[in-house]
Write a structure and sequence with these properties.
heterotrimer, A alpha+beta, B mainly alpha, C mainly alpha, B: mainly alpha, MetI-like fold, 0% strand, C: mainly alpha, 2 domains, 74% helix, ATP-binding (chain A), transport (chain A)
Chain lengths: 375, 303, 285
């Protein structure tokens, strides 16, 4: 993403400036700034009640902001009704017209735009083929499966060639397996036809796997935004660190420089200590949070050969959750329990190399330690 | 095969064959509980209706008298051969159709609001809709007399505005206005149920795809609430056909007040021609039943 | 990376600001609602306002305010007799229809009979039969019995018309009652009748109460069938008022109406407290 914007300043299709939405005296959206570049898939991610859906509804025009401005393609649409906005929207419940056949559902937006009959038929056919439903035009929506209905909704939204495609929790009504497949399909389709897309979800996995850019929202505000990997690897707030993925979070402060060059010692309130990389803004005495992702920790047998690592401690295995591709261990240490995720070896006979109660050695690199500001 | 069906039916009914009396006894007790109401309804509702059916096939033999039991269809022939009764029948059906149509149209926005909005005005609206139903029939009609009469509220207001006054008391228009007010709540309830079942996001989908409010109404609301529209319309039509106090009070003794139900009343109480009154009420009932059957058919065809 | 993130917050520059639309379909809907609600409310409000008129004849707006028409109402012997008759009739109807209808409702929810559908239809038929049809049939029937114009005829008529309401309300109450509670009582040693009396009846008591209240209201407001059973002993208050307004147009009926509305409101308020008004309204349609 960084390269992309450096190489050629991308065209911004959608921009929200200082957007607020109050329902009575309750703030659903306190202050949202957002810019979506052409052909990108941007995800609004957050727990329910964080304002992401209200933001989407304001982009669509179903709600008007209390303050702020919404611009689509250089035009102020803040108070433009939805039918004049050139947006395509897919709802969680698909919202297919139950009394219209699939092809009439897809043709609906074209009819409203006065597209002549022949072109309409042609575009509907193309759109249905695009979502792999070429044969289903004559069916009624309730004769299709959930995944198929979802694809019809998608076809209906994209056939009008909207400036922006809005997806409101589009996959949450599907079962887990289908959801994963639809993620790939939507992403593939979005790339293929080059459609600027805003996705709303509370599912962090969905957000990480589908997005070019993620906007994490909490309590009506943007907490952090960036590429999926930057959001995951460099959370800027404790909310982001704990909401995206699993993590071991410690509250504490920098105590002093470590005896190894370029490192500092962080001590958590519980007594846990770790060496972290030196940085300009890290002076001793500052209250900070430390995030250690479970997969950055390494477990080895305690009596085995210990490689030199500044961060290591002894613990006992308190719990083992075998999850197929990986195993999550709960490790009891003198200070507090830690979660450790280990990738399982495909060739290995025994799925898990450790047993409960076993004493082990935990280690991690200073780079695994993410410092998060307290806010 | 028959054996199989029989035995499975036996199982589903519960008790093992060892205790055949155990099932029978409570059912018999329940039968006793039904006696008072069934007895009352048969003796004082079904039997009178049967007697009345008999009367409709007997001759008028002086006030409140019937001729000897010669069953004849004179009364029905009289109804269908006299132009006067055709006119009354026609007026009744037209008034009922107009009332039902207006009621459904004006009930729609209210039902839609009740089904969709979370506004705090909602409770007040429910009260306003229910109020005509719990207000005494005579009271409601009296209220309309106060409003519609020649020196009534409406004409006072029109005069105040310098507009020509209207004659509404003892006119068909007046009857329609009053009946519509009385019956609109039924349309609200019948529409409310179906509108509530329409996914609100369908309306947003229409707008998102470029449709206006008109398209929302035409492409989503009307097709998807069609069953409720039809049911509400028919419910009101049937009640308007049978309405009697409102035409009598607002329509008066003239033509405007002459509808099927008031005709039955005049024949029953003033001219005391019970056989003809009975025939008229059965014609009215037949129309109502036919329409209900028709509605069932239309709904099935829709599905 | 970091810069790319931040460019997003840059201010929106040269775009002409849109202004909020003045009118949309929501306003249109609100206007429609106000108009229709006014239409529904108009005759009722007018009656209440008029009842406080000080004028000799009907006119609007009244030239002055007084309680004279209430005084007149309470001093009118015939009207007071009508009110007492209505109250007595409604009370007896509520008890008789309440008991008979509740018993039937219990039987109907418990027994499995192939006549179940027929029995149910019989119990709701008076509700859907046009009032003039029921009225005329009762006029013919009670005349033949020599009971025309008697209190007995009136009472029977009102009981017939009220049984459907009671059955519908109590059946609804019993259907929402979890039968396994009764079975639990039996498993704990109660006999079937004891379980019925100690568990089932108390559980549906509120339904039965509101059914009786509804029967009261139904009888108290009844005019159509009552008009078909004329006689000196059958002049209920609504019927007396019906005859009065056919010949007079002074504010006295407004005072009667306001009293009737107040009684109806009171009864409905009580019923609403029992939490069944919604169910009644739903079933009635």
């Amino acid at each position: 993403m960084a390269e992309l914007s450096n190489a050629q300043p991308s065209e911004i299709v959608l921009r929200l400036a200082g957007v607020q939405k109050y329902f009575g005296s309750v703030a659903a959206v306190e202050n949202v700034e957002l810019a979506v570049q052409k052909n990108q898939l941007v995800t609004l991610l957050g727990p329910s009640g964080c304002g992401k859906t209200t933001t989407l509804r304001m982009i669509a025009g179903f709600e008007f902001p209390t303050a702020g401005q919404i611009v689509i393609d250089g035009k102020d649409v803040t108070y433009t009704p939805p039918n004049k906005r050139e947006i395509g929207i897919v709802f969680q419940s698909y919202s297919l017209f139950p009394h219209l056949r699939v092809s009439d559902n897809v043709a609906y937006g074209l009819k409203r735009r006065g597209v002549p009959k022949e072109e309409r038929v042609q575009r509907v056919r193309e759109a249905l083929q695009l979502v792999d439903l070429g044969q289903f035009g004559d069916r009624l929506p309730n004769e299709l499966s959930g995944g198929q209905q979802q694809r019809v909704a998608l076809a209906r939204a994209i056939v009008i060639r909207p400036k922006i495609l809005l997806l409101d929790e589009p996959l949450s009504a599907l079962d887990a397996k289908l959801r994963q497949r639809m993620r790939l399909e939507i992403r593939h389709l979005q790339r293929q036809i080059g459609m600027t897309t805003v996705l709303v979800t509370h599912d962090q996995e969905e957000a990480l796997s589908m997005s070019d850019h993620i906007v994490v929202m909490n309590k009506g505000n943007v907490e952090q935004e960036g590429t999926p990997s930057s959001i995951y690897r460099q959370p800027k707030t404790s909310f982001v660190a704990s909401f995206i993925g699993e993590t071991n979070l410690f509250k504490g402060e920098i105590v002093h420089a470590a005896n190894v060059d370029g490192l500092l010692v962080f001590r958590a309130d519980c007594g846990f200590e770790a060496c972290i990389r030196k940085a300009d803004n890290l002076e001793p005495g500052r209250q900070l949070l430390l995030s250690l992702r479970p997969e950055t920790l390494t477990i080895s047998p305690s009596q085995g050969e210990a490689e030199a690592s500044p961060n290591a401690l002894r613990g006992t295995v308190a719990g083992i959750n075998y999850l197929g591709a990986r195993t999550v261990f709960e490790i009891k240490t003198p200070t507090r329990d830690l979660m450790v995720s280990v990738q399982n070896d495909a060739g290995s006979e025994a799925p898990v190399a450790f047993v409960e109660g076993q004493t082990i050695r935990l280690s991690w690199t200073p780079d695994a330690c993410q410092i998060v500001e307290i806010n | 095969m028959a054996e199989l069906v029989h035995s499975s039916a036996g199982v589903s009914q519960g008790p093992a064959p060892a205790a055949p009396g155990a099932k029978k006894a409570p059912t018999a007790n329940y039968g006793i509980l039904l006696l008072p109401s069934i007895g009352t309804l048969i003796a004082f509702f079904i039997v009178p209706l049967m007697i009345m059916l008999g009367y409709s096939f007997r001759r008028f033999d002086g006030p409140a008298q019937v001729g000897p039991v010669h069953y004849v269809i004179d009364n029905y022939v009289k109804f269908f051969t006299d132009l006067f009764y055709w006119e009354v029948l026609g007026r009744t059906l037209v008034v009922a159709a107009v009332v039902a149509t207006i009621a459904v149209v004006i009930a729609y926005p209210i039902a839609y609001t009740l089904a969709r909005s979370k506004s705090r005005w909602k409770t007040l609206m429910v009260v306003i809709v229910v109020l005509p139903l719990i207000t005494n029939l005579v009271v409601r009609n009296y209220g309309w007399m106060v409003i519609l009469s020649d020196n009534g509220l409406l004409n006072t207001f029109l005069q105040y505005l310098g507009l020509p006054t209207l004659t509404l008391m003892f006119t068909t228009t007046g009857v329609i206005v009053a009946l519509t007010q009385v019956l609109t709540p039924f349309a609200v309830f019948s529409l409310f149920g179906v509108i509530q079942q329409i996914n609100p996001q369908l309306e947003e989908s229409v707008r998102g795809l470029g449709g206006t409010t008109w398209h929302v109404v035409k492409d989503v609301l009307i097709p998807l609430s069609w069953a409720g529209i039809l049911a509400g319309w028919l419910l009101i039509f049937v009640q308007a056909v049978a309405a009697f106090a409102t035409p009598l009070l607002i329509g008066g003794g003239g033509r405007a007040g002459q509808l099927l139900a008031t005709l039955v009343f005049t024949d029953a109480i003033s001219t005391l021609n019970w056989p003809f009154a009975a025939a008229t009420s059965f014609i009215m009932t037949a129309i109502v039943l036919m329409l209900i059957a028709l509605q069932g058919r239309m709904l099935r065809a829709k599905r | 990376m970091q810069n790319a993130d931040r460019t997003i917050a840059s201010p929106v520059a040269p775009i002409t600001r849109a202004s909020r639309p003045f009118l949309d379909s929501r306003h249109l809907l609100a206007v429609a609602n106000i108009l229709v609600c006014s239409f529904l409310l108009a005759p009722i409000l007018i009656v209440i306002v008029t009842s406080f008129s000080a004028d000799q004849f009907m006119q609007f707006p009244p030239s002055g305010w007084s309680l004279r028409w209430y005084v007149e109402f309470f001093n009118d012997r015939r009207l007071m007799d009508g009110l007492l008759l209505s109250l007595a009739l409604a009370s007896v109807t509520a008890v008789v229809a309440g008991v008979a209808g509740s018993l039937a409702a219990f039987a109907m929810t418990r027994m499995t009979s192939r006549f179940g559908g027929l029995i149910h239809s019989l119990h709701t038929a008076p509700l859907i039969t046009p009032g003039v049809v029921t009225g005329l049939s009762m006029l013919i029937f009670f005349s033949a019995m020599g009971l025309r114009g008697s209190f007995t005829a009136l009472l029977i008529g009102h009981v017939v018309l009220s049984i459907p309401f009671v059955v519908i309300i109590v059946v609804a109450g019993l259907q929402s009652f979890d039968k396994s509670i009764e079975e639990a009582a039996i498993s704990l040693g109660a006999s079937r009748p004891v379980a019925f009396l100690t568990v089932t009846i108390p559980a549906v008591k509120t339904s039965m109460m509101s059914a009786a209240v509804f029967a009261f209201l139904n009888s108290f407001d009844e005019v159509v069938v009552t008009l078909f059973l004329p006689g000196p002993r059958t002049k209920t208050l609504p019927v007396a008022m019906f005859e009065y307004i056919q010949h007079n147009l002074d504010p006295l009926p407004a005072a009667i109406s306001t009293v009737l509305i107040a009684i109806a409101m009171l009864v409905v308020f009580v019923t609403a407290r029992f939490g069944t008004i919604g169910r009644i309204m739903g079933q009635r349609l």
